[in-house]
Write a structure and sequence with these properties.
The chain has about 300 residues and is an alpha/beta fold. It has a single domain (about 5-165, about 220-300), classed as Alpha-Beta Complex (Spore Coat Polysaccharide Biosynthesis Protein SpsA, Chain A), CATH 3.90.550.10. Helix content is about 40%, strand content about 15%. It has helices at about 15-25, 50-60, 80-95, 110-120, 160-165, 170-175, 180-185, 195-200, 210-220, 270-305, and strands at about 5-10, 35-40, 65-70, 95-100, 105, 125-130, 145-150, 155-160, 220-225, 230-235. The strands form 2 sheets. It has an 8-stranded mixed sheet, with helices on both faces. A two-stranded antiparallel sheet has the order 5-10. The chain is globular and about 50 Å long. The N and C termini lie far apart (about 70 Å).
């Protein structure tokens, strides 16, 4: 496979996570033919400096790729700006990109999947994003890959032709939504996507991903996804910028390459319903956990009394 997309890896202050992410990437088919760009954000505080330096030292010693370039930020720009700037830089140079963060383990076939999909849908304007992570869906009979509206941020790829429509201004995005669109955007209320938009506007998060999904959604764009995940997120151990300690997103990594891609460029209805049902059940699971936690705390309190 020729003309492979560059890989952008965004890192900060988690050397152990970064080491594992790199080790899985190195085992990928096509790794040795791929260019790797490692974007290292500057330390936010004095206490972060040692870990940031440790990550940079690790990055300087990386092998197993066609080339490795380390881009060290002198100042802390934050994850969102680091990703937006890095993606813009590389799509301007290469026309396409594969994006990883420092807490993502890849299947051996993840790079192959990304590059195949990037080539296959290069001229399909409606296809704007390729995701590699997928929830642990239990629905039988789903195709190997399918189109869906929402963009996952745990391992993804896109083209310059799609990224040009990324709108960073949340006000410009929000003014295009009405009640019906909000309902569709939030997968019929099963996901807190609109809440993320409101929290970004209020300065409570700094998510690039929610603005990217909104940019895709408002153009009627679609995302390609596998029915079995090609990415495992190891950041749900409380160490991530936007992650909590959870195991409901744990998946089994795909160990076979993708052989089937959809010819029809439209959202797959059974896959949409399977994801919606998973998210609906997940909300119930989180609520039940919350109740159990409160009961446990109260029980301990009364036992002490």
């Amino acid at each position: 496979m020729q003309n492979l997309a560059p890989i952008a890896l965004f890192v900060y202050n988690r050397p152990d996570h970064t080491r594992r992410t790199l080790s899985y990437l190195q085992k990928n088919i096509l790794a040795e033919e791929s260019r790797l760009y490692i974007f290292s954000d500057g330390a936010k505080t004095e206490s972060d400096k040692a870990k940031v330096e440790e990550v940079r030292q690790l990055a300087q010693e990386v092998t197993g790729f066609k080339s490795v370039k380390l881009i060290n930020r002198e100042q802390n720009v934050g994850l969102a700006n680091s990703i937006i700037n890095g993606v813009t830089q590389l799509v301007n140079e290469y026309g396409k990109i594969i994006v990883f963060e420092d807490d993502l383990l890849a299947s051996p076939y993840t790079l192959e999947y990304f590059n195949e999909a990037l080539a296959r849908y290069a001229n399909e304007d409606k296809v704007m994003h390729i995701g590699a992570y997928m929830y642990n869906l239990k629905t039988p009979g789903l195709p190997h890959t399918f189109f869906y509206r929402a963009a996952t941020s745990w391992g993804w790829a896109t083209w310059g032709r799609a990224w040009q429509y990324f709108e960073p201004d949340v006000d410009k995005l929000m003014q295009q939504f009405d009640t019906s669109r909000i309902h569709q955007f939030s997968i019929e209320g099963t996901m807190n996507f609109w809440k993320q938009m409101l929290e970004f506007k209020a300065g409570k998060n700094n998510s690039w991903a929610i603005r990217w999904y909104a940019s895709i959604f408002l153009r009627g764009g679609l995302t390609l996804n596998p029915s079995q995940s090609f990415i495992q997120n190891i950041g749900h151990d409380g160490t991530g910028v936007h992650s909590n300690k959870e195991d409901i997103y744990t998946v089994r990594l795909a160990q076979q390459p993708i052989k089937e891609y959809p010819a029809l460029i439209e959202e797959n209805a059974p896959a949409y319903q399977a994801i919606r049902q998973f998210l609906k059940n997940r909300k119930g699971t989180l609520w039940q956990r919350g109740v159990r936690f409160i009961v446990k705390i109260k029980t301990k309190y009364w036992q002490k009394g």
